[in-house]
């Protein structure tokens, strides 16, 4: 569950700190008071795209932070996705400015937007206008089906996820190696070109 929410410079909101509990909570107010904007802030924390129009007029950047309490199933799910977590909470921050600079962190680690969206499946659900609903999320379909597995099926599913995570890690290493190779090749071309120019000058 979402325990704390902090928003700075989001639309008409200058600064907002909210604390939630396990009881039913209703946000009420007149039209234009900012109820939907609070939901926009939460949507940033579950992986929705940001845009500069969201930044408060007269300000240069926007910041959102949420602290989520996790149950054992959610922690297990995150670990299966390759995001190791020992604590019972998830701290997510989003920052972006008018110069298109952005930063996403989860428990202090920088992540991509797609990775954040992947991790937040089954953590929180924003229901409205057919968006963010678990039943429309293919990733969540697998989670529902897994609940009907027997012990043997669960063990097999666990091994498959471990293998998939290992493949993802290897693919990431391959991409890093290819990027380094490309940089080395680029430097080699540059120095060869510089060497040829030096020889010609001599």
UniProtKB/TrEMBL annotation:
GO BP, sorted A to Z: DNA recombination; double-strand break repair; SOS response
Residues in coiled coil:
160-187
- Would I find Hydrolase among this entry's keywords? no
Highest taxon listed in the record's lineage: Bacteria
Q: Which SUPFAM superfamilies match?
A: P-loop containing nucleoside triphosphate hydrolases
Annotated GO molecular function terms are:
ATP binding; ATP hydrolysis activity
* Family of the protein in this entry: Belongs to the RecN family.
Q: Which UniProt keywords apply?
A: ATP-binding, Coiled coil, DNA damage, DNA repair, Nucleotide-binding
> Where does the Rad50/SbcC-type AAA domain lie?
4-186
List the source organism.
Leptotrichia hofstadii F0254
Its cellular-component GO annotations read: bacterial nucleoid
Name the record gives this protein: DNA repair protein RecN
